[in-house]
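Posting here for the record, re: PRP.
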Amino acid sequence: MSVDLAHIRQVMAEADCLYTEAEVEAAIDRVAVAINADLAERNPIVFCVMNGGLIFAGKLVTKLGFPLELSYLHATRYRNETQGGDLFWKAKPEISLIDRDVLIIDDILDEGHTLSAIVDFCHQAGARAVLTAVLIDKDHQRKARPDLKADYVGLGCSDRYIFGYGMDYKGYWRNAAGIYAVKGL
Ligand SMILES: O=P(O)(O)OC[C@H]1O[C@H](OP(=O)(O)OP(=O)(O)O)[C@H](O)[C@@H]1O
Ligand code: HPA
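Prediction output follows.
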């Protein structure tokens, strides 16, 4: 399917900036402080959830001052759309999780089906503890479970479709240096 780049550019031009780059960077710093305090002695395996987790994970891990192993997994349910569907695993962890502490890093906790499925997978694979860090938690009543929370949360946002800092609009603007909401969504 061909992409209408004029539309992609227009979405950026008309978007509302929810958080500037400086605000996002300050949030990443705060998350790093909390994780450094909790995980420094636990030799965790850290998983970046591709694709959206890429920017947050990359920035966050450079601020973690303790030994860790870094890998990735890829589970997707939006597939460049603005509405989620069934979860599809593109890449499962290959490293053994047995008796390991695991930290999952993703960009957004929206309805939470993605993070829930990843956490369940890690427990079933024998992880001792599974912790989660998200850059942003969207505020609405459609969570996969009512009590669903990440252990480490950078920022919150209202119930709009957002992009930037790893999050995409139709596959674009993951590179935006700020967090933006699409006009009208
Ligand atoms: O909380 P949820 O409603 O489950 O949505 C959150 C997930 O959706 C996005 O991934 P997406 O499926 O778009 O895959 P991608 O990162 O590869 O684009 C995002 O990166 C999270 O992983
Ligand atoms: O609001 C969003 N923006 C980008 N990706 C997403 N994945 C779930 N929700 C969102």
